[in-house]
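worker-3 :: picked Excinuclease ABC subunit UvrA
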Amino acid sequence: MTKEYIEVRGAQEHNLKDLDVTIPRESFTVVTGLSGSGKSSLAFETVYAEGQRRYIESLSAYARNFLGQMDKPQVETVEGLSPAISIDQKNAANNPRSTVGTVTELHDYLRLLYARVGTPHCPECGREVGEQSAQNMVERILELPEGTRAKIAAPVVRDQKGAFEDLFEELVSEGYSRVEVDGEEYDLTLDDPDLDENFDHTVDVVVDRIRVSTEDRPRIVDSVETALEEADGVLKLILPDPPEETVTDLGEEARRTGALGDEVETDDRFVVEFSKDLACTHCGIDVPEIETRSFSFNSPHGACPECEGLGETKEVDENLVVQDESKPLKEVFEPWSYNRSYYQTRLDAVAEHFDVSLSTPLEDVDDGIREAFLYGTSDQVLFKRNTKNGIRRKRKRFEGIVPNLDRRYLETDSDSTREHIEDYMSVTECPACDGTRLKPASRAVLVDGTSITEINAMSIGDALAHFESLEANFTEREKVIAEEILKEIRARLSFMVEVGLEYLTLDREASTLSGGESQRIRLATQIGSGLVGVLYVLDEPSIGLHQRDNDRLLDTLEELRDLGNTLLVVEHDEETMRRADNVIDMGPGPGKRGGEVVVNGPVEEVKACEESITGDYLSGRRQIPVPDERRDPDGGPASEASGTTSDEGIESDGTLTIRGARQHNLDDVDVDIPLGCFTAITGVSGSGKSTLMHEVLYKGLAREMNDNTSVVPGDHDALESIEEIETVRLIDQSPIGRTPRSNPATYTNVFDYVRELFAQTKLSKQRGYEKGRFSFNVKGGRCEECGGQGTVKIEMNFLSDVYVPCEECDGARYNDATLDVTYKGKTISDVLEMEVGEAYDFFESNSQIRRRLKLLKDVGLDYMTLGQPSTTLSGGEAQRIKLAEELGKKDSGETLYLLDEPTTGLHHEDERKLIEVLHRLTDDGNTVVVIEHELDLVKNADHIIDLGPEGGEHGGEVVATGTPEEVARLEESHTGRYLRDLLPNVELEGPRGERGEPVSAPLDDD
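worker-3 :: tokens ->
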């Protein structure tokens, strides 16, 4: 009998305190709690890791050699486990060859469909091409009416210049007497054709003249095979007086099943061509055999040869080579320094050739001369070079600066030269394949008149509509072949729509997807698998999701549960908790103060538990308050918020305006961002928020304010009022470091001050230890056995590599001499093991260290250890460390801060701290712009820019702007409707109105 619960006993992974917990099977369980309370340690490092480990251990040692081996988590027992599948926030792929189509395996089914039922067409003229056996051709001929006269001819010469006397002699020697030259018949035994060798001619050898009859079938078969052999697999069927009722059928049927060209009509004659191979006889192009790999841009059989299947190429960009046309010719070409003799010689020679001075600004010279400098001359130029033997002169064409850079980029073996040239190159859509990644022949294969590249360019929603009725025009044979393939394609597309990804196009690069989108793609794949009895462990699937899309996601999760699976979801989203069967609240605090189960039961039980901070927020005992007043974008008095106004009023400082933004799906929008205010950019998934902030605003400002020409912003007309901003800072979720040597202490410079403290101790001065002695990154004070890492990797052959504490330093990172030095009884290694909150109290006498640690506490990271490797930090934690570091900088108060979903991974209690930090930044005279879906943060904004109305091609418009109250009253705004339940001054009811908790007084910080 199947156990009803997964029972975890004695879990001690990370900060878990000998934890016992039961998780109901075949139910939807949410694990929640403060950041650092042990949620992931329980769900991923314990339950999932043990399930995965047991599965892998059941395999042979040979199989484990390829799969690797997971370490046994620190837990006594886990009973009732099912096979476990983890669906986390890691991006699907960083490979530029991975697309939405490939990671969902949709492209594999598309390739199969096009290889099996696709109709090849000529990539040049678009005519249909096909292949037939000799037997097929005979059958087509015998379908003609009995007695029809026909010639079977072999086209031995097609559109070639020459008189062909030798060919005619050879044909006679082989026994052929009749030929047709340019459609006119000749008897070679009586007359040699007199051809003008300067004109193109076509020569067809008449192999046989027949009357169609089933009795003559052997003779027709023999003639067809002979003609195919003479003309390398191609033959012509010439009908001198074709029957009217059959000509059209023969032509269309022959073309559809393999005829390779136009019927050539001379008087009443009718000519049709057949081919054994795929080739367009009209254009003389061979079409390769159609296989599934013909449609793979990861295979040389299908990839565009120019861009090798990437869809884009690097080219030297004239706009980067010439950045300021007002500069003189001597200095205007950025890659060519006039101080180098090679470039000086060439610039002098071209200037002398055109009789212009190198001190003339480029904008003042003729276009022809400008083109000559950039792209080369057609005339020869006299180059002079000074040598020890005198002046050497040489005449040759000038190559041109742009072609010179292109050539050297391909030919050089020097990495530094290549990097130098790359500074003047931009990535452009491949001109050969128009960014479609495939060869012309592959793009010319059609199914129901549509190529595979057209399908790839569709959004998932449009693709599903396209495939719904695709087989209506199929033949019976095609329907049988395509039935199973289409079923799989439709199923996968449907699952993608179910999880709210209908706006993604199939050719979208996987590396450009957000973590939430990648997670939902994998979730859709799992729904499609139809597995039952599986344990799914998910990591905050609501990240990056608008409330409307989140509701659809929750429907999907419930569907997975109803199939008979167990769902264990790490999540902070309130709606997810309300719809879960069971909630496990971890705590009571973060880090060392966490690692226990505060409450485990239905959501009502959590709400009733007064020890649970999560329960406080779910029940309304605590809440993130609506601000009493909002900063007015127009510089006027404060506008309504919670219903009160201020006499003083909070003024803003003008407006930063984006004009004509049209990158990706943005629909030529104008956006005003009030300066000195806290602005939230909202909208459903795929509406264009990230494009507006990252591609247009940030890159546009980086290029204009810092004169950074290597940054190419998204398409827009202009950015206005940028002079009002002193600097711009993007605080995203990218890692703070890519090696374990980077950690919060080093990133925020806390460790510099700590090392100075240790260097100033009495023992350090006696021994002559400098600050560098206490760095684990340089030789001297660190343990050389482990290189300052604290761990040593033991390779285990077919088992997973094991990391063990270094025997020399016992994991302390430093040698014994360095560890002799203590500050207040603690070694430098002990300090790295301290949590931020603990260190804040420990260094109470050092204001520099305390100030930086206070900033980390302010953003809710007091549970984090100072030496935690940056590679183990979540995206949200990395972003908050960057935010703390920014808070520590002294600025003039005119900084534009851009944040992308800063509430990622935050409990409501931590979110409240973050909102206070953002308000503090704004109160100091800065401008804060945040992409966000979390409504508690959105309701705190002074101004909302809501994009939509939908995602993908149906988005990219500004749906609403204004205060949260103004946006909440607009029916067309999805964000506004969901905001209604959280704003006391808006009487309208939102979509979740019946589940909203009563609004209580703002929470005190005690």
